[in-house]
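quick one: succinic acid bound model?
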Amino acid sequence: MIRCTPIGAVGAEVDGIDLNMISDDDLENLKALFAEKGLLFFRDQELSPDAHLDFAKKWGPINVNRFFTPVEGYPSIAEVRKEPQQKYNIGGNWHTDHSYDQIPALGSMLYAKELPTLGGDTLFAGCAAAFDTLSEGMKITLRSLRAVHSSRHVFGKSAVIPEDMTDMFGNADRAFQDAEHPVIIEHPLSGRETLYVNPGFTTRFVGWTEKESNSLLAFLYEHISRPEHTYRFQWSKGALAFWDNRATWHLAVNDYPGETRLMHRITIEGEPLEP
Ligand code: SIN
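yep, here:
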């Protein structure tokens, strides 16, 4: 029987379930929980790459990430790897994946294969809770704004990718996406008003210059990342985190020099954010 421990402003830890064998009832409960919480954690799972894919496909078609190096033999599973000699890690700053796509991916399932002896946690932030704690005046202003999101400065030809990370990414010529989204979306699953800008990919507000946009964006980034909107997940081998890109941000803490961390990530296709 599924048990769920809710976590503050974002997420829930789920136990009493083996992701290799999910009944229809369990799946229905998990879908309702995911819609409500936007972030689920499962521990002690023994998932082969095929089982990981089978679980992900229960949420929708798989989005094959065009920039990440895949796991050998599994083009639809991205490898999130940091080796002992590497200085930088993947996802080491606050971001939400795929906001540069006009139809952003629903979310990702990250599965812990190999972990450092200490550290390598992931931080998450809840963007609906962050919206709720803004003033009414700010909410009214933000509802009238749209923002531009881009992949060019992160994955494109002009991106500054540290030398020890170049073989983790590819297809720089395919980083030509600029997308526009409302700053406050109505979340497709929960219906909650949710802040949808992020430091990784949002470049400016529509109709504003970058310079004009920067101070309001900086305010929103500081607000969303306040401790009361966040949760720090300490990984254990076999844990799986499943986050909703439209409801959360995440940041992979880079605090384990000289050690290996290896995760498998599967991303699921999303739906338009506006009618
Ligand atoms: C990511 O940004 O997808 C990686 C998150 C992590 O490795 O914790």
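Residues 80, 90-91, 110, 122, 250, 252, 263, 265 surround succinic acid (CB under 6 Å).
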